Amino acid sequence: MKWQPVIPVMLVLCIMVLSETYAAGPVIVCIQCHATLTAKLSQPVELWQTSIHAEHGITCNVCHGGDSTDSAQAMSPAKGFRGVPAPTAVPALCGGCHMGVAGHYTNSAHGRALGRGGPTCVTCHGSHDIKSATLDLIGSRNCSKCHTFEKARLIRSAMLKRDTMLMVIEKKIRMLKSQGIETDQMEKRLFALRNRFHAMFHSLDIKLIIMESDHIQAEIEKTNGVGGKDTGPLAGIIAVGWALLLALLFYLIKRNVD
Amino acid sequence: MINIFRHIYYWIDVRLGTHEIINEKRTGYLLPRNVNAWYSLGSVLLVIFALQIITGLLLMLYYVPNVDKAFTSVSFIMNEIPLGRLIRLFHAVGSSMMILVLLLHMLSVLFMGSYKSPRELHWLTGFILFLMAMGISLTGYLLPWNQLSFWATTVATDCVSAIPAVGRYLVELLRGGKLVGSHTLGRFYTLHVGLLPATITILIGIHLFLIQRTGVSTPPFGLEDTTNSWKNGKFIYEEHPGGIPFFPNFFLQDMISISLYMACFMALVFFFPNLFIPSTSYMPANPLVTPAHIKPEWYFLANYQTLKLFPSEIIGIIVQVLAMTFLALLPFIDRSPEKHPLKRPLFTFTAITCILLWIGLTGWGFYS
Amino acid sequence: MDASKRKFISICLGGVAALAVAGVAAITYPLFRYYLVPKPAGDSTGKITIPLKDIAAGDATFFEYNGSAAVLVKKQNGGLAALSAVCPHLGCIVQWEKGRQDFLCPCHAGYFTPDGEVISGPPPRALARLPFSVANGIVTIG
Predict the structure, then answer these.
(1) What does the pLDDT read at residue C3?
(2) pTM for the whole thing?
(3) Residue A153, in any domain of the structure
């Protein structure tokens, strides 16, 4: 029987909703309204809710402007509302938060083709259902939209080995964390490494990517060395052996005293 | 060299008469000839309690009882401080061991009929100690402020709300607010390091005094007459003429039991620590997200499952309160003089049924 | 009890004592290390840097250096002084008085010049000086 957290969670939820002192997070008026509209206008809400942006609290106004707390001002140009951004404005918009990527992109073939049929961030990453970027984005599905997959395949295979290693490290860190080992530093280092690696891709410069790949390899090897301080079973064996020996000695004494 | 110890001993004895007391305890304190190893569980419990206090004090050096800092302070202890991980594990595993050995001690007292007259007070103080031990484990549990602590405490304190009229008020009293938060941490910490250890120590003192005063009970095994020897009327110390001297004979048995316990305990701490600290323990408390499989510690699983079984929470609570009250008042309800478990079938049958029921509920609670 | 039994018991007791001593010895050093506050892992050099422009002339800024309170003064003529802010009398932390351009120890009214020399009061000696250097408008203490 799966645990039905009916009573306690309902209780907690009721208190959450009713209590004024409990900060349940600000209400997002954009979602309140758009969720009730027709398919075309409500779809972004559904897509966004599955996104990594939603997980981190990046709401509609961060990209579209406007005031997300006030219905009257939600779509007001005075509050910075810019509606659907023009394709040429997208890289600058995303690049505002995602540093480092914009530079590589602008200098690449993709960046030079912006406004002339070239891809923007949204072309591969999506606009609302954005997920954490993986190597799967580099595939025939995305790349073949405009040209053949050949060059992209080369770049992808150059990155595959290192990217897989990064994922292995991420798993290792999660495991260490579940044993109580302090992983903050490692997580931050991994995040920085992965970001740099993925940002580099946008330059589409395979020589640069291979150079960066090797650099990442060195960094990964450094991170691999950092791990849990495991003393091994020796201490445990000594401790248990000590106690058992003590018990044996007491038993021998008792047998002779009785 | 030995002379100086003799001098000091003499100096103290001349002032306090310690020689007389020690002699009396050494040779005068006799235990029944058929005393068995179960009788040494009490001293094992003393050692466990002492270890908990020592490791607890050591943890207090670095633990910070503040909702923003508690989790990181525990992580600090586990990672940055030499021996920190071991001390924390000793304390966490030790608390489960305390309850386990306590239950075994209770079982042995039940089956050997040691709770019967004139030892009703021993049983009562022991029972209160049992409740205190559960309480100190529950309060201690919240302190690391991880997902498990937070939600298990939320569920545990919620149960009280089912009491009509005063329920909601009682929950607020327990939590220091409507939800588990910084005030809960504050009062649980005070209970855990202050009030409960002090009360437990006093109760242990009383419990030991009572045992010394009435004399140790005679186990019903290996005897022809296994009935209770107490006759109502006058206070009589239960003598054991021709019995086994406590020192050194049963003292050695105590030492054996303690050593064996330490072997089991350290095996658990060094090789199976994750039995007691699952991975949810390493996520800081998040009042907005309840993890999927929250359940209380193993010794509360039976209570938890009982509450889930009864459609109305208040009935579930009442049933458990009644069961505990019955157990607490057992010496007043069971007045038969027979102590041997095989010669009092009603008791033995009921006891075994209840134990199996408890184990079943615990297992069910674990797997559901 | 015959002699061989007694001897055997003594040997066993000796074994128990040895184990007890070994146990205590094994645990004492780690416990000692546990009790000593571990050094923070972060900045091993222990140096503190303060941008010059952060302090106005005639003002002082307090910070932690080497585990205790320290102060950097920018005197009105532009000169700098980096001092320990711990009063040499009984250890209270001195305060900077902007109006009077001196340090005052609030515990027993010891007064110090901006360079840490004692003006009046019970302090037996001047405030300890800290080594510092200035480069590119940044003061590095340590």
Answers:
(1) 85
(2) 0.74
(3) yes
